[in-house]
UniProtKB/TrEMBL annotation:
Descriptive protein name: Isocitrate dehydrogenase
GO terms under biological process: isocitrate metabolic process; tricarboxylic acid cycle
Entry keywords, A to Z: Oxidoreductase
Family: Belongs to the isocitrate and isopropylmalate dehydrogenases family.
EC number: 1.1.1.41
Source superkingdom: Bacteria
Matches recorded under NCBIfam families: PRK08997.1
Gene Ontology MF terms in the entry: isocitrate dehydrogenase (NAD+) activity; magnesium ion binding; NAD binding
Residues in Isopropylmalate dehydrogenase-like domain copies: 5-331
Length: 335
């Protein structure tokens, strides 16, 4: 059988060191992958003059599965977010952000287990109709939701819930105010919900959802929502389990999937062997599950959980005083 080839984008800042950590752990767990390394972000800009070179796009299209570190999009006009570009180019319509409590972190809660499923290509982030008046006194942008887009993400969320034996999907919206866009999203999500009578459905206005996530997070299981709300809620959920260092993300389309650390490139600690690689290790676990390698994913998750629980060679943000390589070694020993 041909080996699974994974496109690997190491990324900027701490990206290379945390990606190396994840790859070492995948290899130690017996994953027999081949890796094709390509560049994007500042590294690519320096080497090729482009943030997202054609060779990188070709590799993602060819191999279909990508693991990527954090990328830096230079601030300023003329540079489009690389992540947004990738989502559009490959129609990665579903953004999946699971958060799970790990014992031993400095998180405020103990048994969080929530998956945010965010529509990834429409709404306020579609970049449509962005205009600033010549005198700089007015700005406008357009939000666009399609029935097809809303239906695809709702079906994705319910199918995910069913596959993972989840009990409940909460549709998060703002249809009371945004009657057209959020209204359409809610209407279509309700239609989809009716096809899954085995799964409990709740509906919640986004501001109430933010409050409830902080006060009674145990009410949530799977959240499905639009692009802007999903971006905000998924970071709020990460905060429940100890921050972005504990939160992976997947961008999934019909022909390609990109698994990533969701935090930034942290240039201030790059090259200092200080970064916590957990986010990208968890992203690689998501990748294994996507590839149907659930047993291997579980072994790695248990090893990471044990390292964090025992505080054995953890990084500073986890209350330890060790670096990326020590943490990685501790996980590998448990495998």
């Amino acid at each position: 059988m041909a080996k699974q080839i994974i496109t690997v984008i190491k990324g900027d800042g701490i990206g290379p060191s945390i990606i190396d950590s994840a790859l070492e752990i995948l290899n130690a767990a017996g994953c027999d992958f081949e890796y094709e390394f390509v560049d994007a972000g500042l590294t690519a800009l320096e080497n090729t003059g482009e943030l997202l070179p054609q060779a990188t796009i070709d590799a993602i299209a060819k191999n279909k599965i990508t693991l990527k570190g954090p990328l830096t999009t230079p601030v300023g006009e003329g540079f489009t977010s690389i992540n947004v570009t990738l989502r559009k180019k490959f129609n990665l319509y579903a953004n999946v952000r699971p958060v799970v409590s790990f014992e031993g972190t400095k998180a405020r809660y103990e048994d969080i287990d929530i998956i945010t499923v965010r529509e990834n290509t429409q709404g306020m982030y579609s970049g449509l109709g962005q205009v600033v008046s010549e005198d700089g006194s007015e700005a406008e942008a357009m939000s666009k939701i399609t029935r097809e887009g809303a239906q695809k993400i709702a079906v994705f969320a319910y199918e995910l819930a069913r596959r993972e034996n989840r009990k409940k999907v909460t549709i998060v919206h703002k249809a009371n105010i945004l009657k057209s866009t959020s209204g359409l999203f809610l209407k279509v999500a309700r239609e989809v919900a009716a096809l899954y009578p085995d799964i409990e459905t709740a509906e919640m206005i986004v501001d109430a959802a933010c409050m409830k996530l902080v006060m009674t997070p145990e009410e949530f299981d799977v959240i499905v929502t639009t692009n802007l709300f999903g971006d905000i809620l998924s970071d709020l959920c990460a905060g429940l389990v100890g921050g972005l260092g504990m939160a992976p993300g997947a961008n999934i389309g019909e022909d390609a999937a990109i698994f990533e650390a969701v935090h930034g490139s942290a240039p201030d600690i790059a090259g200092k062997n200080l970064a916590n690689p957990t986010s990208v290790i968890l992203a690689s676990i998501q990748m294994l599950e996507h590839l149907g390698m659930g047993d291997t994913a579980e072994r790695i998750r248990n090893a990471v959980a044990d390292v964090i629980k025992t505080g054995d060679r953890t990084t500073r943000d986890l209350g330890g005083n060790h670096g990326t390589t020590d943490f990685t070694q501790a996980v590998i020993e448990r495998l």
